[in-house]
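Researcher: I'd like a candidate sequence for this fold, 58 residues long. If you have to choose between options at a position, lean toward the conservative one.
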């Protein structure tokens, strides 16, 4: 996956994870042009089973 930072808020991707390196410091948006959503479960049934695979800790 090509992870590229557009370095401004991407208003198509809302994010409230302030610990992520790609979180906008100004508002609750991601600064990546796209993200990858994955899972840690074999058969995900609820949203808690999904993960943002683009997450990088600040």
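Model: Candidate sequence:
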């Amino acid at each position: 996956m090509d992870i590229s930072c557009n370095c401004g808020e991407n208003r198509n991707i809302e994010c409230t994870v302030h610990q992520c390196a790609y979180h906008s410091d100004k508002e609750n948006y991601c600064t990546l042009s796209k993200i990858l959503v994955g899972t840690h479960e074999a058969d995900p049934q609820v949203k808690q089973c999904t993960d943002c695979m683009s997450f990088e800790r600040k």
